[in-house]
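Problem 12. The chain below contains 415 residues. Write out its predicted structure in token notation.
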Amino acid sequence: MEMKIGFAKQNITPPPGTELGGYAGYRPCSGGHDPLWCRAVVLQQGQTRRALLSLELLSVDESLSDRIEAAVRPLGISAVVAAAIHSHAAPCGMIPGEGPLAAVNAVAERDPEGFRRYMEQVIDSAVCACAEAIDRLEPFTVRSARGTAPVIGSERHTGQTLDVPMTVVGVRTQSGRTLTVYQIPCHPTVLGPDNLLASADFVGGIEGRLDSDMAMFLNGAAGDISTRFTRRAQDFPECDRMAAIAAEAIRELIRDVPYGTPEPLRALRKHIRLQPRAVESPERARLALEEATARWQAAAEAGMEPGQLRILRTYVEGAGVALEFARTMEGIRELSLPVTAFTFAGLRFVTVPGELFSGLWRPDAVPVCYANGYYRYIADRQAYRNGYYETMAAIVAEGQGERLLEKIEELLEIL
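Solution.
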């Protein structure tokens, strides 16, 4: 059965005033530094069409991914994977007041209607990108490679360089158009909380450095990987430096790999049930926030090194989230995480709706995180033992990350 592919992109840069996500505090966008894109790849096998979307947003929760999937259904697309790149200089991908975690993932409380209009813009752009991709459907050849990721990020608490994999897929269509899909697990956080310009962070400079008509970034198990210790500054020239490092690694990994005939596409979707975390009383959570704030302020006054000071600041942010959870999670008894496993270019991919810690990933498959849902941090048991701030900002209970991976491995066995 012949397979065809089409790909296209649409601009989703937010209007000024749209709230940016990723850091604590209100951050209204003052404009755009580089365009934010919705990139779409549509695969057709026989009469079945599926779409893979990469949105240059902080997150894509179930309310947004479900709305996108419904909107593209009239185009003959039966299933959608919608993944965020997780830039902290981009808006959240959440529709205010919708989705199973609406109470927990409160967003754009200062201007919910304006933010809802922006989400409609994102959905419309996703439909347009998919429609254009369908118009360009044609036979193709494909190649893929896996290797070690370049040192863009490191373990965000210790600065330790981690040996994490990167994946590159190359596509060449019958007419000669080229596509690169690449995955490097890392928080795109070169830019800090003081930046108010919309940007894809270091990801924004990669496509123009590759010899492809389009390049799509998919993030991986990056819950504990960031640029905190690897960046030399928090500005746009540093984003460009990181982009150049990433682009060179992508080119080198795929350079000598030959193109071949695509294998049949297989896909399975399942909801995996996990237990939510136990929440503290609002009083205890408020006390923890006050204590974390006092430690951070004392360290700042003592002139602590910026990287270590930022860690203490994240504990303040985590304690703030824990206080909010104490108010909003009381009625949540079970979590149902959507997971999709699919094959492409001789590789197996699995979506994870959250920020998965790198140490949890074991399968011989490519994790696509921040996809089709946003269940925040999914940490390993060691992170709980270490008391990392991500565990304070987690929705799932301790040990549920390991359970999620067990269920993913079961899903992969029948793919």
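Discussion. The chain has a mean pLDDT of 93. Students who got a different answer should revisit the alignment rule from Section 12.3.
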